[in-house]
Every structure is written in C-alpha cells, then in structure tokens.
Amino acid sequence: MKNKIYISIITILAVLLQPSCKDLNIDPLNVIQDKDVFATEAGVKGYLATIYRALPIEDFYYRQEGSGFNRQWEHFYHPGALCGELVGPYGSTYDGAGGFGYWPYGDIRTVNYFIGNLPVYGTGFSKEQVDAWLGEAYFCRAYFYFALAKRYGGIPIIRKVQHYPEQSLEELQVHRDKEVDVWNFISDDLDSAYNKMPAASERGRANRYVAAALKSRAMVYAGSIAKYGSENFVAGAARDQGYVGIPAAAAAGFFQRAWDAAKLLEGHYSLYRKKTDKELNYADLFLDKESTENILVRDYSLTTGTAHSWDATMTCRFMTADGLSRAYPTLELVERFTGLLPVVNADGTPRRFDNTSQLAQGLEPRLLATIYFPGATLRGKQFDMQRGIYEHFAGTAADELGQNPPNRQFRHLAGKTETLFNGMRIIGFTGISTDGDDLSRTGFYIRKYVDYNRAQSQCGLYMSTQSWIDMRYAEVLLNRAEAAFELNNIVDARNMINDIRDRAGAPLLTGTFTIDTVRNERCKELAFEKQYWWDLRRWRIADRLLDNTKYHAMMPYYIADEQKYIFLREFEPFQRSYNFEKKYYYEPIPGGELGKNPNLYPNNPNH
Amino acid sequence: MQKIIKGLFVLLTAMMVSSCTKEDNFDGPNAAFKGRLLDNDSKENFLTETGGVQIKLEELSWSATPTPQYIPSKSDGTFEDTKLFSGHYRVTPVNGAFWPVEGIEMDINGTATQDFTLTPYLRITQFTHELQGTTLIMRFKLSAPVETGLPRILDVKPFVNTSEYVGSGATISQYTDPNKIDINSSWSADIAAKTYEIQVPNLKTTRTFYARVGVRVDDSFKQFNYSQIIEVKVP
C-alpha cells in the first residue's frame, strides 16, 4: 500500500516536472517591453510624449533658480527680473545667476535609448515613418544639449546609452567635451533632424523647420560666444583647456550656419498680420492659436492639470480673481522703444498732463501691446496709476529729483488705496504704493500674453490656458538679422528688421545702423519671452549693463492746486541694485555631479 | 496600560540619553591662518576694502579637487580666520585688483602666518584733496606698475562714507555714481600724464566723511585699486 502511494506521488511529480523546465524564460506580463513600445505607433507616440514633456522649454513656469522647469504658480519669478527687463521679487542678480543645477542626462538617456532601439523593433514601420520619429529624437537631444551648453559651456557629449554594471567606472566617468565641440554636436543633430523629418507636424511637435529654427537660435548663440567671449572672459583652467570659450575664428562659421538655417524657413512661416489694428494684432499674436507665426508651441489645459497662472500673476488683483503680481517692466525697457519719454518741458519743468493716459499717446503699437501703460484698459477697468499727490509743485523736475527737493514738503505718499488727502485718494488702485510689491513699482504692467478676453472671475491660479510660443517666426528673423549683420550683410539685416518693424507699427529703419540697433530690436520684440537673460550673457554685455545698476520708474503725481498730472523719472521704490559678475557667463557645474564624477573638473572659472 | 506606556517612554528617553556617549574623535576647527597682503613696491599693506581680495583655501588632505573656501580681506589689507581644520592647503589670493599670483601649498596647524606680495594693476598717486564749501575735490594721477597686458581701464569712482570703512561695498551711492569718470580705454601715455579731478558736491554740512577714490580695469573680477582714505570734516 505504502509503495503504491510513493510510486504514484513520484509519477505525478515526474509528469508535473516534465513540462515545467521548458519555458521559464518568458517575458513578464506586468512590465511593458521594448517591442510593445517601439513596434506600435501608440507606444512610440507615448514614448515621445515623455520626451517632449521633459523638454527644457522656458515657458510661463520657468525660473532661472529654485524650481527651474517645475510647475508652480509664481510666474513673477521671471528671469527678466534678474537683469533689468523687470523689477521683481529677486533681491539681486545673484539670486539666479548660478542657476539651479540643471543636469538632464536622464532625459538624454531616454532619447538615446529611443534612437538605439527604434530601428531594432520598428521594422514594421515604413522607412519614412522611422526617420521622422528619429528626426524628432535628434531634435529633442539637440534641445537638451543646447540648454546645457548655454549654461555650462563644454559638457560631456553622450551619444549612446551607458550601461552599468557592464561598463567599468572608468568608462562611465566621462570627461567634459570642449565647448566648441558641443555646439558643433548640436548643429549636427539638428542637421540630422532636418534631413529626417517631414515639413509638417502635429501641433506642439517638431518638423524639419522647427529644427532649422532651433538651429538658427543655437548657432547665433555659438557665434556670439565665439566672438564676444574671446574678448570678455574669466581666465581659468577650464578656459585654458577649451571647456569654456570658443576660438574667435569660429565665429563667422557659426553665424553663417545661423543665417543658412534661418533662411530655410522663408516662405513656410510668416509674421502674424491678421488684424489691421497693429496694437490689437500684436496683442493677439500671443493668444491666437492659429497664428501663422508659431513654430513650436506648448499647450496647457485645465483637464490635464497643466493650466498656468500668467493672467493671475502679471496684473494686480484689481484685474484678477486670485494670486498677485510682483514683477513690473522697468522704465529702461520702455525707453528702448521710446528714448526718454516727453515728460519734461524745454525749461526743465515737468510737463502738465490732463490725465495719465496722455503719456501713452502716439507711442509704438507694439510697445502698448507689450506693456500696460497708465490709463490702459483691461477687462473693463483702467490702470489707475498714481504715486502720490503734490499740493503744489514749483520748479524743475531735475531739482525735485536732486538731493534737496524743493517741493518735498508738499508731497503725500501712501501705502494703501484708502488713504485720503483732502478727500482724494493718494495712490491709484493699481499702484504705486509705499508698501509691499503687489502693486506696480514702476508704473507699468506686463501685457504680453495676458488674455484680455478672459473674464476677471476666470483669472485665478492655474486657470490660464494660452499656449507658450517657444519659437516664433519673428525670432528667426531676428536671428537671421543678427547673423547677417555679424557677417556684414547689412542689406539683409535691414530687410529682416523692417519686416518686424512694419508689423510692429514702428518707423522703418533707414540709413546706417549698428549691431546695437539689431540687438535693441531683439530686446523689444522678444521682451518678457525669457530671452533677455541669455542674450545679455551671450553678448557678454551683462557685466556692463548690470554694474551695480538701479532701475527707474515713471511716477505719476497729481498736483492738487493745478488739477493736473506730472510724471517724474525716479528710481523704482525698492532701489535694488543689480550686479553681474563675469564668472556668471557660465554657471558652475552642479556640485553633486562633481562629487560623482571627478572627471568633470576643472569647474568653470572662479566657481 | 497608561503605566506601561509611560514606563516605555521613560525607558526610551533613558536609552536615547545614554546611547550617544561616544566622543567625536576628530579635532575641531582649531587651526588659524592669518597674514598681510603687501604692495610689491611700498611693502605697505595692499590698499583694498573689506572683501576686496579673497584668500582661496583648497584643502588637499582629502581630495585633489576640493571645494574651495575663502577668507575675505579686512579693510586694512590683512586677513585672518581662526576656525580652520588643520591640514594641508593650497592658498591663493584671488578676486582682487592685482596681477594673478601662484598659490602656495602649506600645512596649516596651530596659527599659521603667510604674507602675500601683490602687484596692483594701477596705483593712485599724487593724491590730494580739498574742500570748497560743501564740494570735495580730489585730484590724483594713475600709474601702472606693469603696462603690457593691462586690461582696459574702466572708470574711476569716488567713495564716501560716514565711517572709515569705505570702498565700493560701503559708500553712499548718491555721492559715488553721479560723480564717476568713465575712461573705457587701454593704458596710454595720455592717461599716465593726466591729472584726474573728481568732485563730490552737496556734502551734508556739520558731518564728518571718509573718502577715497578707486580705479578698476576690465579683468575677471573688476575690483578697485584704491587711494588712501581721507577724513573730511564739512563745517
């Protein structure tokens, strides 16, 4: 009996064991496999979406320090507030000059994995389709490296996925590459992207012209770093070894590539000219999703939880439902458009105005569409801007701004709108207060990208859905104008600038002009688009413009006994001074990375 | 139940108190490093301001590429740090208005002393001043100890403060920026021959001010070479 039981157990076990050693090596069903991702269209699209999501687009959310590309609501931590485009919450330039240690090699690995594996598993797709996707991957990789190169100069170029522990530590601890090699690598990747991709793409994704647009931007950066960085630099080991700095002789080549790339877009995009009213047209250019000028955009929506807070944080609560504003255009930016505003008479006395909105009369439509002036209207409310009241004002503006102001005893300022003088409000509902900074400090507010059609009740935090235009045709024209001027092609530079000026409603450029004219046009056209910080750096003029510099406000006062208004060109109330040290032409390599990989030394000069 | 919980808390507290009795067997920061910065010509203290020069310390005992620490100069051209860890350091004066110098490797134990001789980019010479009413007038010439390779000269500025700590980081800005002289040119015989005059008008009466002038060149750091400090009593 016992034997029988034993035998039957052994038999059953033997039968059971027989098939079990066959196919233990099967893929787990709860982990998505490469073949599932790279062999299906939905898989590839999903994978690419991850990459696009991580793309370092400096959109509404971007700040030059702290949370970097992460999403939070305080859009007034704007890079322009570090360098005189705006005055804002930053105490000084140092708050953001060192960056936040951006180091996206994880994302670059994701791209490299895609480039390596799509041709292996994607054999079921047509060659054109595989090429188009690979082109997008090359575009994204170039985008990441561009974001690195403009911060750190030369960084390691990783072309293929690294493997650990298969590869030794020595292989994995890569060295920095020379800065010039990184820029050339970016250029090559964008050429690959251009050659592989078709001419059209889904909204928010790259096509060959998007790659060309990015190339024009990157190459004009490289050219100016080569040209101006070889004159204005910080000495150090990293520079001696070529990790930062590009030989001046390479400048012309980079500018030529920028020009060539920009030229490719001709005829495929155009400046937005849908409306005849130039001010309205320029304001709508940033709000019309169908703009012919948009090259690469990023969209936001309430349903995906990506909506931003631009409307709630660029103008004050007088116009919005929630949030607050803390960053305001400087008078210096306004004067890039207008020169000194006509607020002083020939005899030096302040010009008398019947109301504050007269200041904006006759100004360039583009300026008025970029910045809200006193008296402008938003959502049915006027920008009510008043710094204070003078009971009486005699003498010149210069005396009043000097060290012994003669009318000071007649002046009344206030912190709150409810403070009255003889029954009159001392300050306006939109500024300028002596307390805090949630009303304008300069007399101006940002208008660009503000959705004036949105009801006030809809202007809360995380409720705005206008797209960020990462690249638009006007920037490509400006890249081309700058490259053309640097290459002594003055005629082409003038044509590009005049195309932009015509759309802007600005007087056309005639006669001779300098590189400063070209640059100033860029600063005006791209104001608040998070380009100014990088432009000042790559032109190597930041240390001259930001040399313990204080910025100005245009302060409107009511003169009680005359019942008129005057404007005084004063320092902005916080009187913050902005200073740029030359070492910040490159950010320091992040300390954590230096700790992991000693081959990243030498760090950038003086860091 | 309550008693058990209380008892456990008492036990826990007793254990936590008694568990950390082991002593830290590394020395604290018990070393000091000090010295003077000297002008190569006069052998007097280098004319600078608080933080106008930094002494870079790289502790080589543990790593060839340490994160540097810095000792800022005092306003009299000396420096001192009394809270350093003993070890082997490379020390280099940096971030000031002088021709770059090589670092020195040295052991810092107890109180180490090391002076550095620096060659300024520019010197302010024949410095005189007078007070006319409430306007301070300062006159001076510039001289360059080394002319070849001297970076472009940017500007000269007056610095005025109510204490003897006066320099670019400690000045009354209304007296400084409006009264500066922009030079923006390379070193030349013209600059060497010229007598510069800086006026600081509208000084407040019945106050005592301390003033000096500074000149800077477009090097990596853009720090100032200074004159001596003068005391000005405005009647």
From TrEMBL, chain A:
Domain of life: Bacteria
UniProt domain RagB/SusD: residue ranges: 320-606
One Gene Ontology cellular component annotation held by this UniProt entry: cell outer membrane
Organism: Chitinophaga filiformis
Record's keyword terms, sorted: Cell outer membrane, Membrane, Signal
Family classification: Belongs to the SusD family.
Subcellular localization: Cell outer membrane
Name this protein carries in UniProt: Starch-binding associating with outer membrane
A Pfam family matched in the record: SusD_RagB
Domain SusD-like N-terminal: residue ranges: 105-217
SUPFAM superfamilies: TPR-like
Signal peptide, first to last residue: none
Automatic annotation (TrEMBL), chain B:
Entry-linked Gene3D superfamilies: 2.60.40.2060, Carboxypeptidase-like, regulatory domain
InterPro entries linked: DUF3823_C, DUF3823_N
Pfam families attached to this UniProt entry: DUF3823, DUF3823_C
Domain (DUF3823): residue spans on this chain: 32-117, 123-229
Protein's UniProt name: DUF3823 domain-containing protein
Organism (species): Chitinophaga filiformis
Origin organism lineage: Bacteria, Pseudomonadati, Bacteroidota, Chitinophagia, Chitinophagales
